[in-house]
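To: structure desk
From: M.T.
Subject: fold request, one chain
Message: Could you run this one when you get a chance? Sequence is below, nothing fancy, just the single chain.
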Amino acid sequence: MEGAGIFNYGGFSCFFCSNVSSLDLFYSRRIGRQPQGFATGTYVDIPENTAILGAAKITGRTGSGISLGLLNAVTREERASVIDTADGQSVFRSRVPVEPLSNYLVGRGRKDFRNGNLVVGGIVTSVLRSFDTLALAERLNRHAESVGTDLELRWHDRRYSLSAQFAASNIDGDSNAILRAQRSSARYYDRPDRDGGRGADPTATSMQGYGGYTRLAKDAGDWLWEGSVNYRSPGFEVNDLSFLTRADYVWMNGNVFRYWAKPRSWYRDLSVIAGAQQQYNYDSDLIDRQFHAFFSGTARNFWRGSVFYILRPATLEDRLTRGGPVVMRGTTRTAFLNLNSDSRKRIVLSTNPTYGWNDEGGYGYSANLEATFKPASNISLSLGPAFDRSSSPNGFVGSAAADTATDAIAKRFFGRHYIFADLVQRTFSMDTRLNVTFTPTLSLELYAQPLIASADYSNYKEFNAPRSLQKNEFQREGSITRGDRGTIVERGSEGNTFFEIDPDGPSGPASVFTLNPSFVDFNFRSLRGNAVMRWEYRPGSTLFVVWTQDRSDFVSEGDFQLRRDRQALFKAHPDNVFQIKLNYHFGF
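Reply: Done. Structure tokens follow.
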């Protein structure tokens, strides 16, 4: 971690914003990640991580004020151990490559001007892979590069600022690997209604893109303001050495901020923010618009609270069908409250409930309470139970091909049906922390988080047409009241279910089609905890003893029953990891 800050790139700032990400080009956990390939057989053992054969890092600052960082790492080829049986008699053993030999390179530089009021920098990243099998070559990029530049400018006693970043990316490899990138959920190149002929190209062996971020703001004074734009072209791809969940957008944001810093009779400080944001894809579809207001303040007794409200009018939605045509999302509203008691007291309380609802009947709320107890200056215990419940009318279930000759809905959706359902999700968790400082050189930290989650799908439906909000709900077998048009029947056994759907009912001309759902009802239980003892046995030299336990359980049920799920959680098989780390500081 020494000097790791020099590699930071893609900083992002806003007074108030949502559903947006920074322009990152380097995410260190990509090095040594879990192998990305797969293997099949009766018994398969895939390594949990990729071993790092060697790594080197150089960081520093020249006499002329240039900060430099260079990092290079080589990870080895990883193979899965596979045992296969034929007819229950012959046994075949093999070692299947699941991660190729790879080289990762990051170079970063920054230079300060005008006493630090102007900072100019650049970054270069590279990933090179060596493949021994066609299976991995068809799955992963052979090489991936990115280059970026950034600028930070402040003036008028640092009251005003300009931040700007621009980056370009390139990936190269087998046409199947590039096609995977084109079809990924970050961009959905193969969306059938994509404009401008920018669909997926199965013959392409490379893909290029660009991204950027610019913010102009007044950051000091009683009245503040900001305006920013953030964009990623459809071909921008940096997941080989960074973390990118979405490309193909242009995002804009603006806010006005009023701050009262001088204490009065009933408050110590107050803040009010009002603003808006919107987002388009590269087909010029408006895919998000938001109006928001925020208020926060600190009372004379040092209690602090804040509240905000977000209104998102109905807009188009180009991700909901998972690569299908653009549809519509209804108007949504969200309210949020945060309240914290005086942090100086022995008992500190905080809560931040939320509630959201939309015009389609969906809603969601969350409630939590975190209590921190400090019986002594060297002991801190905190408990944080939390419960979330959400009901969405747009839970994606799956899609299936259909005959367009007799099926009007399939014809509108380019030969497929995209099936949704009402999705009810519930989550309960309890964050628990205990910190004890025995002496200035000896401390113990304990953390545990039990988590129980469920998802329940019901009332299956589909959109009537692209770029529309209206849906048709199917009637289920045995139901005489639910359903607008068409029928849906569940077949198969538990763990292997499928649906038979007649989109216009027995009297309509459309043929029955079969849907294997991509998402089904489930219950997930997890318990994660760790204990860390830290002993500084001599100045600068430290011993860490760590115990981590992880247990989880997954079943296809969907109903939330706290008592049953809690009992099942503690019956799950635990994975225990013990680690010892020793640092020794040479005093020269």
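Reply (cont.): The mean pLDDT is 92. Let me know if you need anything else for the meeting.
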